[in-house]
Amino acid sequence: MIRCWQLGLPATFHRIRTALLPLALLVPGPIAPCARAQVTDLWFEDVTAASGIDFTHCDGSSGAHYLVEAVASGMASFDYDRDGLVDVYFLNGSNLEGSDYRPAPTNALYRNLGEFRFTDASHASGLADAGFGLGAAVGDIDNDGFSDVYINNYGANRLYHNNGDGTFTPWIDDVLACGHKVGGGVAMLDIEGDGDLDIYVANYIQFSYAIPASEFRGRTVYGGPLLYPKEPDDLLRNEGDGTFTNISQSAGIAEEAEWGMGVIALDYDDDGDTDIFVANDSTKNFLWENDGTGRFTEVGLLTGLAFDHRGDPQGSMGVDAADVNNDGLLDLFQTAATTHHMATSQNVGSGFFQDATLRWGAGKGTYYPVNWGVAYADFDNDGDRDVFIANGHIHDNMDDLDDTVSFRIANQVLENQGGRRLVDVSAMAGPGMAVEESSRGLVVEDLNLDGKMDVVVLNIRSRPTVLANRARRSRHWIAVELVGVHSNRDAAGSRVWVESGGKTQVLDVHCGRGYQGHFGSRLHFGLDDAAGVDRIRVRWHAGAEQTVENPAVDTLVQIVEPHSVPTR
After folding, report:
1. Is domain 44-478 in CATH 1.10.579.10, yes or no?
2. Which of these ranges, 80-94, 270-284, 303-317, has the smallest mean pLDDT?
3. How far lies 494's CA from each of 46, 63, 101, 141, 509, in Å?
4. What's this model's pTM, rounded to 2 decimal places?
């Protein structure tokens, strides 16, 4: 068995971390047996063939096994033309040294026509970027009502301005390029509360063609990130006049460097400003705590998010946030490399997290696959968050090296059973879960507006997979879209509570999440057996609070921030 770029860590680090936690948090909860579910309402159908999506991902490979090939690519979903249907955007690789793909690969935007039918709008929109795409985030940078796209490349990064007519124009500012690095995930957030979105850019490695690939059992395989110097991440401040300033040094971000991959911005300590979590490969994760002015301190070790329950790094890939057990606190889920369990980090309050992977059962069946994309979503609308995971090995010749693991394998879905267990139901969740590819990024959206969350997966060196959610049981639901006025237009960093049937659910608005991608700008809440919603409460990022009583269900509810001046 290949042990992919795992980095050992002295047990001393675990002792230091646990010494900082309250004693009560060190007592493990009961660990239930990791049994698979016998029945499930989840059911996914593969509708790729009839979707009109003919994109094929290219990783620029030539047989030389450059590491940047293996980590490509993330993807994004957003309603670029404001027609009410969520569109999908696939990142793509490009030619590397020794390869000559013709025509040259480009990113691809597919416009949603409804009922799982799409049309290629890549060139007509201007989003057929030819860079080596690795990560992306979507947000309204200039608050004009239309979503802009930032692409984190191997090479110069790019920001595309949405012109509001279905086309995009490159944003001209050299700061946005971030120095031609090897990128990871991206998050857009308002770091200092001035009402516009700034950009956090994760960086992966300082790549060089001169560093050779690795050898294993006489075969050439991808060498891991430990072969390459680390690259500090970048933080770009939006000046509000169309220009950006790289404030990585002054904001504290450049003080530490690791191998950055997935990123999500969230208010982990519930103090009203937005913090940043970075899933780092083969080393400790970052949690950047915001002091409210846009100055950050790294607190991953102090909060329990840097390492797993053993004090080991996880080889983290993607990350998403949601309240798994409906206790009002946002938990984190991190995918990981092979021979690592995925990490389910339970928010236990007071700014601390506990590794609940074994207790919640999320480690079952996730140890040997390489997990990339991840999304929390209520796929059966029963009022709790399930988990979809994109799998695929790093090594394209894995089948020749080990007969127990394959390059192309099936993805997984974990059903949330009442906030107590996350159970792998993939084998009984429909033919769509039997598709075997080497998957990377994914998005989760209600693509056909039927109130059920569908999935699109980017597969390396192959076509994507489009999965229609055909859940066996119908339940009520509500979707919420926020429009900021004093807050940024996307309302990133705002929090929404939905009270229904004696249960309260909570979600934050994120711009950037999963494996180096973006999805879920509309917040989706399943209502289980409740026939209606008592109220929706919103805490806007700018500070105002708002309540909507008895909204309609089984529909999208748009809430506009009050025009009165907010106070924190």
Report:
1. no
2. 303-317
3. 34, 46, 43, 16, 6
4. 0.93
